[in-house]
Design goal:
6-stranded mixed sheet; alpha+beta; Deoxyribonuclease I, Chain A; 2 domains; 13 helices; 7-stranded mixed sheet
Length: 371
């Protein structure tokens, strides 16, 4: 009887594991429920591995069933957890850095100037040849971030078409004192800075979304044109109440169904919007015949429609040179990797790393390669 229950629960967990893999192929606009299962892939995988170990220790021939099922999911396992033990990870060639900078900590009013300074210092230290930033922010008064990166950090070429622009006029005496040059012109979006000449630029149309965008720049890298996509896919936009709900779940306390339903609704909306955006980016990438790279904040896990659609036959720098889960998100559920650098098979990847300083809610991803 007990053995039968174990077999039953193992079969159920295997079915869930295989369903989670389908999340990479089926659009969330059709079956959004699969996206939630794909999100839970690492947990479901661990459960099945425990079943496998149990059957092996019991010397039971049923062990071949979870073994075969896990083997069928090997590609997804490798995308989630990298197994590079050789230590060959040399920083040489062209250095590319991608980072969601969270508006340089703009809304942390007591420390934003200090955090911004630390972030710029990190960029200066790494000194990448190409710099891709998401949730980029600049204004014409206190934080001239485009000018600073161009003039002080030495990036001659820049492409920054603002996704959001906001012009504020001073109303109080204090504002008039602070905004001595007149109105405060603020801009948000994704920005690409390069030390290589830029020969062409463009945007991928994401429709009505305000805070998310994809831009591309054609770089002249030693006489070879490489198209670089810098993307920020749809965010979930969890609020303080949502994080409080996750805290109660983490602490195994009771929480309201209404709060959980709100989080699930936001995730469903984000999954469906990301799938539409991923399709648009994938179509644009297929229209370019040369070598290409896409990097940025995907806001999605490796077992997802977004990642699978955009990656295609590109190399994942983390899979090729990283190790472990490759955490890039420093907030709740922080073992997830949602920031990526995917490169054309014609390019040779030399190294991959992240910097774990918590200056943003994302860690910068730094990759070196040869054209």
């Amino acid at each position: 009887m007990r053995k039968g229950l174990f077999i039953f629960f193992n079969i159920v967990s295997l079915a869930v594991l295989l369903l989670s893999c389908l999340a990479a192929y089926i659009e969330p606009t059709e079956y959004w429920q699969l996206s939630f299962i794909g999100f839970a892939f690492p947990v479901v995988l661990i459960v099945n591995l425990l079943f496998l170990v149990g059957w092996i220790l019991a010397w039971n021939r049923f062990a071949w069933v979870p073994l075969v099922s896990i083997a069928l999911c090997w590609g997804f396992i490798h995308n989630t957890f990298a197994f590079n033990f050789d230590g060959e990870n040399k920083e040489q060639g062209i250095k590319l850095m991608t980072w969601n900078v969270k508006a340089f900590d703009l809304y942390n009013w007591s420390h934003n100037a200090e955090t911004r300074s630390d972030m710029m210092a990190l960029i200066r230290k790494e000194n990448p040849d190409v710099l891709c930033l998401q949730e980029f922010y600049t204004n014409n008064q206190l934080f001239h971030n485009v000018e600073y990166i161009h003039d002080t950090l030495g990036y001659k070429y820049c492409y920054f078409p603002p996704a959001i622009e906001l012009l504020k006029y001073p109303r109080s005496k204090l504002q008039k004192t602070l905004w001595r040059s007149g109105p405060l012109d603020q801009q948000w979006g994704v920005a690409t800075f390069s030390k290589f000449p830029v020969t062409d630029t463009g945007r991928v149309d994401f429709g009505k979304t305000l805070s998310n965008a994809c831009i591309y720049t054609d770089l002249d890298v030693k006489g070879k044109t490489i198209r670089l996509y810098n993307v920020h896919f749809q965010s979930i936009h969890l609020g303080n109440e949502d994080y409080a709900t996750l805290d109660t779940l983490e602490e195994k306390k009771e929480t309201s169904w209404k709060s959980l339903k709100s989080i699930m609704h936001k995730m469903k909306l984000a999954y469906t919007r990301r799938s539409i955006q991923a399709n648009a980016v994938g179509k644009n990438m297929q229209g370019f015949a040369g070598a290409k790279i896409i990097c940025g904040d995907f806001n999605d896990v490796p077992v997802s429609y977004t990642y699978h659609t955009v990656r295609g036959d590109l190399q994942d720098a983390f899979v090729e040179k990283g190790f472990g889960f490759g955490t890039t998100f420093s907030n709740k559920l922080s073992f997830f990797r949602i920031d990526y650098t995917l490169l054309d098979p014609a390019l040779k990847i030399n190294s991959y790393k992240t910097d774990k300083k918590e200056l943003s809610d994302h860690y910068p991803v730094i990759v070196t390669f040869n054209p």
